[in-house]
Amino acid sequence: MRASRMSPLVQCLRAALCSLLLAVVAPPDAAAQPAAPAKVVTVASGLDHPWGLAFLPDGQMLVTERGGTMRRVSADGQRISSPLAGLPQVRAAGQGGLLDVTIDPDFATTPWVYWSYSEAGDGGSGTAVARGRLQGDALTDVQVIFRQRPKVGGNGHFGSRFVWAPDKTLWITLGDRQQDSPSRPTKDHSQNPAKHLGKVIRIQRDGTVPADNPFINVTGHLPEIYSLGHRNPQSAARHPVTGELWLVEHGPQGGDEINRVRPGRNYGWPLRSYGCPYGSPVGNQCRVAGGTHAPDFEEPLTTWVPTSIAPSGMVFYTGRGFPEWQGNLFLGALSGRALWRVVLDGNTVTSREPLFADLGERIRDVRQGPDGWLYLLTDASNGRIVRIQR
To answer: For residue 25, what is the enclosing H or E element?
Structure first.
């Protein structure tokens, strides 16, 4: 009998039988199954105060250790190399040392590795950026492509996170080197466009200045500067949809900020902060200049008050391992000792929560691996690479 001439009853029975067979044979819809809980897996350990993490195309990792060494770690964590040869002299003191690391956007054809570090010089030290070609366990053709000016005394607030812009220029976050005080706010450092302190800069891969930077040919302004008025941004990432730079920076006593960074904008430090001078009574009355940034400066998207979490490392999650987390922002915490999940609706923070606080470790960096899982660096003399997976 042709299907077109089947009676309605036969067609109905046949369709019901097919549906029953499919229900028995076909696997259940994965989306309908309860998701397995996230778990923490140690990938590698024995790292000495690791600071920055970058994935190579084959899944191997480059890890910086603050004392001045960089190592190559196999994708499974079973091999940790000897220190890579070729690094310049690093001034490892206080918060300074060998800091962030990233690879060239075109690494397959131009295998440059970029790293930031504290460099000694006249007047003290400052954040510097170098690059070299990765050949085995060595870096060759090493070039210093940026030096923060001026070098100053002290061993804190180097900033130093890298983010690649969509056009393959490089954003670099620079701290105020603890030259600014909320107790005595001035315009001498983070607010001074003739200094690199407390700025985000944007450079080409060879260290030259992009022609469309916001302060090109502006008298009294360093042309590398992209934004100003930052305290100590150790968390930064590119928004996966807009391509904009976002960063999270340390406040003083409270006042850690998430900022959407736009060219030429001023983010207020040290003239405004939702944090307070150190030693102030915990509360809101001591906020620097009342806290509110607008209209003179850019308002942060959210702040941590009245105490700080000391944010470090940051990524927008786009992996498939945790579909319920796609588009969320994740950042590490040093004093908060947790992985913070920040939920967004466009540019609005709708909620945030600390995760994995039972780790009990300072989280220095957060990355998304090529496998779609989250990877964390814990900051200790026996630091770890840990993977958040199902």
So the answer is: helix 8-25
Q: ∠130-380-77 over CA atoms, to 5°?
A: 75
Length reported for the chain:
390
Over residues 112-142, the pLDDT tens digits come to 999 999 999 999 999 999 999 999 999 999 9
CB-based contact 341:347 (threshold 8 Å) = no
pTM for this prediction: 0.90
Q: Phi-psi bin for 155: left (phi > 0), alpha (psi -120 to 50), beta?
A: alpha
Coil, strand or helix: which one is 35? coil
Contact 71, 62 (CB under 8 A): yes
Across 259-285, b (16+ Cβ under 10 Å) vs e yields bbbeeebbbbbbbbbbbbbeebeeeee
- How far apart, in whole angstroms, are the C-alpha atoms of residue 186 and residue 192? 9
Indicate which residue of 157, 189, 196, 230 is catalytic: 157
Enclosing H/E stretch for 15: helix 8-25
- The DSSP line for 174-185 is ---TT---TTS-
What band does 73 get if pLDDT is binned at 50, 70 and 90?
very high
Q: Does residue 166 have a cis peptide bond before it, meaning omega lies within 30 degrees of 0?
A: no
Q: Running DSSP on this structure, what letter comes out for residue 85? A: B
Q: Give all strands of the β-sheet with 170-173 in edge-to-edge order.
A: 162-164, 170-173, 199-203, 225-228
Task: List b or e across 233-245, with b for residues whose CB sees 16 or more CB atoms inside 10 angstroms.
Answer: bbbbbbeeeeeeb
Q: Which residue has the higher pLDDT, 329 or 3?
A: 329
pLDDT digits (tens, 9 = 90+) for 260-297: 999 999 999 999 999 999 999 988 899 999 999 999 99
Tokens 């588009």 found at = 327
Report the amino acid identity of residue 325: W
pLDDT bin (cut points 50, 70, 90) of residue 336 is: confident
Q: For the residues of 190-207, what is the DSSP string, one character each?
A: TT-TTS-TTEEEEE-TTS
Q: Are 213 and 225 in contact (CB under 8 A)?
A: yes
Backbone angles phi, psi at 134, to 5 degrees: -85, 120
The Cα–Cα gap between 250 and 259 comes to: 11
Whether 157 is a known active-site residue: answer: yes
pLDDT surpassing 50 at residue 19:
no
In whole angstroms, how large is the CA radius of gyration of the chain?
24
